[in-house]
Amino acid sequence: MGKVWLVTGASRGLGSEIARAALDAGETVVATARSADAVHDAFGGEHDRLHAIALDITDAEAANAVAAETVERFGSIDVLVNNAGYAELGFFETFTDAAVRRQFEVNLFGTMNVARAVAPHMRARRSGLIVTISSVSGLVSNAGGAVYSASKFAIEGWMEGFAQELAPLGIRSLLVEPGMLRTDFMDGRSASFGSIDIPDYAEAVAQYRAFVDEANGNQPNDPKLLAARIVALASQDEAPSRLVFGDDARQWAGAKVDQLRQDIVRAADRG
Ligand code: NJP
């Protein structure tokens, strides 16, 4: 038996591609989403080394139960892929407080729930890899992405520190910052949009919605390629701790780094 992978958000998009790539590499995969049937549908039914379990990542007890069941059945969790997430898209003031909290409940606290459930099992074996699907929006924010970016910046800050706490215990971390991937991410099946009309933003919001509609289904990056990279990196002993994926992501992240460097130098010049 190869390694044991636990993947969240494996019913669609990047998560299902990662699960598929891991299966193709001979690994055992516990694939989760809010409905186990949705996972089975994504894989066209049963597969020897695929085990579908329902997990809403906002349910901490369910996350503990899935981690315990995985270890009991397969002996370990070697790779956790904390992938499940979605986007609240639109201008900040067009969101209710409840929508902003929902974004954090899933993207940040849900992701923490799963890490908290899995880390004790990895610590006990002094080994494991936690792959966290962040976003280039965890490094760079733009008009229309403030709420989503806030949740992904939070993931970056949390995971950057947590990774240093885990490293001495033999557990590695890979933070993944993709650019735009061709998944359901921008589709009404996944994304939510701000619901409050504010005339001051009306024109800019309409332009932003047109950009999202245009981009939906035409994103430049193939999730299969990213999934293959993640599976390849997981098999290396000296894998990098970050993967900025896609020309768009590398360009945005590079511009942000340049801007930060300039800001730091300018601030120093002013004493
Ligand atoms: O999106 P999509 P992606 N509990 O919508 C699951 C990040 N990212 O594959 O609805 C458990 O095709 C959902 O399952 P379900 C992004 O932020 C993307 O692109 O239950 N699962 C489905 O399997 C996210 O972290 C882009 O059937 C929950 C999956 O999440 C990751 O990539 C760019 C759930 C979403 O599939 C995967 O998103 C970027 C919950 N509460 C980062 N809520 C991009 N696509 O452009 C949702 O930089 N799911």
Automatic annotation (TrEMBL):
Family listed: Belongs to the short-chain dehydrogenases/reductases (SDR) family.
Domain of life of the native organism: Bacteria
Protein name: Short-subunit dehydrogenase
InterPro entries: KR_dom, NAD(P)-bd_dom_sf, Sc_DH/Rdtase_CS, SDR_fam, SDR_oxidoreductase
Transmembrane parts of this sequence: none
Domain Ketoreductase: 3-184
Lineage of the organism: Bacteria, Pseudomonadati, Pseudomonadota, Alphaproteobacteria, Sphingomonadales
PANTHER family: SHORT CHAIN DEHYDROGENASE, SHORT-CHAIN DEHYDROGENASE_REDUCTASE FAMILY PROTEIN
Entry keyword set: Oxidoreductase
MF terms (GO), sorted A to Z: oxidoreductase activity
